[in-house]
Predict the 3D structure of the following.
Amino acid sequence: MADTPPRSDSELEPVRTTLFSKEPSGKTYRIPALIHLRHCHTFLAFAEKRTSSSDTDATLFVVRRGTQEEDGSIQWSSCQELSAASLPGHRTMNPCPVYEEQSKTLFLFFICILGKVTEQHQILTGRNRARLCYISSGDGGQNWSQVTDLTKSAIGATIREWATFAVGPGHGIQMQSGRLIIPAYAYYKPCCCWFVPIPGTVQPYAFSVYSDDLGHTWQIGEMLQKLSCECQMAEIIDQEGRSRLYCNARHTEYRREALSEDSGVNFDKPHNDRKLVEAKKSSGCQGSVVGFSAPNWALNSGGDTEASASSLLSPDMRTWLLFAHPTSKHSRIDLGVYLNRSALTSQGWEKPWIVHRGPSGYSDLAYDKDKDQFSCLMECGIKSETEEIAFMSFTLYDIMQAASQHQEKTC
C-alpha cells in the first residue's frame, strides 16, 4: 500500500479498541454488529467466529459486553460464545440485533445455513438452504432464549421464489410507531427451466422484515424495484413530524437508496447515490447507517452564525443521517463516515471523515442520544480488513470539525 502523507493532530483517527483479533490458528472474526442499550448504558458487540476468513467456515456468534462508566470509559467483558444462536447442522451468520423498548426485549436475528453450502451454490441451483432465526433476551443480553425459526411463519411460500436470502448484517431499528424493522435481502428467481434458474437471472433485492406486535409475529415487505443487496435502514422525520423509512443498500458501483412512505411495506423507485461509491474489486461492501435528531441549534437557528456556516443545512428535517463505509471506489480501504443533514435530497451527503486509513470492511454504527455520541464497530487491519474488529466513538462535533478542516484545505 502506498505511503500516505503525514497528518496533523487534528486529522488523527479516533482512538480504537480491538475487540476481536485473528488468531495464529487461522480463526477469524468477521461481520460486526453493534447495539447500544440505553436503559442499562451498555454496548453489545457481536461477530461471527470462523475457522478461516471464508464464509463457509463460519461457525457461531461471539459477543462482548461494554459497560459505560461514569468517567465515560467503557469496560469490556471477555469474549463469550452464543451457542443458543444455532440450529443443528447449520452455520450461523449475519448478526442483526434490534431492541423493543416497551417490552424491554432484545432480539438477535440471524440466518442459519445448512452445512457448508455456499451462497453461490444456492444461486446456481435455485435451492435455498438458509433459515430465518432469532433468539431474544429480557435482561440486556445476559441470558438468551432458545432459537426461534421464523422461516415458515414470516416468509412462507414466498421462499420458493428465492434462491437464498439473508438479514442485515448490522442493526435493526424500532420506529416511532413501535414497528420493528429488520433489514434483509433475497436472491429472487424470476424464471426457471425444469426447476433450475436460468443462469444470470437470479439477482438480489433488499426488503424489510417487520413486526407491529412487539416482536411476537413477523412479516416481510415488498422488495425494492431495482437490484440491491446487503442493506440497513433508518427512520427519518421531517419538521412536520412525517415519518419515512430510508434504505441504503449495497450495489456494484454506487450505493442504492430508497424511501418508504408506509414504514417498509413498499419502497419507491431506488436511485444510485454518486456520492457514496462502492469498491469495484470486491463488488461493493456492506455499509451502516443511523438516523439521529438534528441538534437544536440547527432546527432553531434562524440567522445563527454557526448554523448558517453550512451550505448544506436543512432546517426542514428533524433527522440527520450518518453513514459508514470504505471510501475508495477501487478496494476496501479508508473507512469513512458521511454526514447527511438533508436526507430527502439526492445531494445531502457531505465529504467523508476518514476514521481508519488502511484496509477496512464491514461496519456497524450505533448512536447514544444521552451522550450525543456515535460508536462504530468495524473490520480493519494493516494488511487486510479481516485482521481485527475494532470499536471507536466520536461526536457530531468531531465530524463537523473534520468537515470544516477539509473545506478550508480545498478553498
